[in-house]
Amino acid sequence: MSTQRLHDLSRCCVHTITTKPWDIDTAVQRYAQEGIKGITVWRDALAGRDIQQTGRMVRDQGLEIVSLCRGGFFPHTTASGRQKAIDDNLRAIEEASQLGAPMIVLVCGADPAQPLEVSRQQIYEGIAAVLPQAASAQVKLAIEPLHPVYADTRSAISTLAQANDMAQLLGSPWVGVAVDVYHLWWDPALQTEIARCGRNGHLFAFHVCDWRVPTRHLLLDRGLMGEGCIPIRQIREWVEDAGFTGFHEVEIFSDEYWAQDQQVFLRQIKQAYLQHV
Amino acid sequence: MSTQRLHDLSRCCVHTITTKPWDIDTAVQRYAQEGIKGITVWRDALAGRDIQQTGRMVRDQGLEIVSLCRGGFFPHTTASGRQKAIDDNLRAIEEASQLGAPMIVLVCGADPAQPLEVSRQQIYEGIAAVLPQAASAQVKLAIEPLHPVYADTRSAISTLAQANDMAQLLGSPWVGVAVDVYHLWWDPALQTEIARCGRNGHLFAFHVCDWRVPTRHLLLDRGLMGEGCIPIRQIREWVEDAGFTGFHEVEIFSDEYWAQDQQVFLRQIKQAYLQHV
Q: Residue A221 carries which DSSP code?
């Protein structure tokens, strides 16, 4: 492989959920101290806070806000459920705007009480409904395909091909895709589809972690980079060949790591980032 | 949907693993009593037994042996590991022949210590290595794509498209595919790929169960048909439109059901089969 190791943290971003036990003040302070340059803010970290002021606090510490996590969850069997989802996504766009986040990651949703094709149509309609607001707020929307293990309740968009199709169909410079190695590493079409979204100019985000062998838990057992079987550097090569120059976002959900000292964990993240991304 | 409900058990097959607490004598006797017409035998059920005699016992009870489960697991980082796998698959072909099973289901394998493409190449080579023996024993080999959640250690073949590609590449009437709704229901290309393997004459098997919402365990929480979110009847329609006339095989791994009275469970299976397949 020709791709070089990363030698600094200038493109390293950490998601607040990765260090879930910390509030956002602590997270921002510690990330900055450790030389991390980017942060993706989860909406739960903003609960009850002045969002504009929080955005200023983040920037004052020298961190760049990469995105707001997360919007989506558009499908529902009822029209009122779908309208609620649209309203919530409009709020997320407003929050991103206040925070100064240039992008929202969309976990698109799925309702197990209806066929996947119906959920996909509702996702299309949901994104289309909030797109004018996103464009006027200059907030990008990144469709994140989720691993097929989450097709029941979290995402009817399971592959990058589907996310690319959806982004093309919506045909807006404000809609693109997020590539997360955890969700997509198994896909034989991954390289081709990464190249495709690069060509189309809608490769908006790149998320990293690892797939543990064995995986203990469907949701909360993501690994630190290098701990599992995902060819992370290979996928980074494909993403960079596709023209991506953005942040590498570390997004780890792990009840095991959350139970540990988060400062120690953050240093492990830095080391794993430099060795394995 | 135009597909009719099933009105009898003439195409119902149960995998011995589904009623794991029963030995094969008990399973065969109870399946026959309940009017089930087919059985797929897992190799663990044959351990320490006279295989030819077991085959006669099954047929004497009026059951048709649909397949032997399972061969595969070809990928390994070492040549000796790969040779062991080939030897084991040759033994499986011999066992199928003795049992009178016309087919072996292949769970193809994956080694997390090497890239998926390498594992896929080794799967191709492994099947090619045992194919002459399968042909001369008149035992079909059915490549079963497994859900991407098993791409780390169980199968580098995650979609029906990949299984179809592999079967076409091997180009033998003795190699085809097994469609299991649990592994494939999420795939937007499923209908197209079912039609494709039908056209190619290599749609060999059809397995049913359901995807529970939520799923408690990665391996042992499969649901009874109707208990989850898989559009089983829709998929049966696609399979039958593709010309498939074989058995509908009930394959459920469930520590929950295994802990219950297996006779009660078997009656639940019959009911779920007639209502939801």
A: B
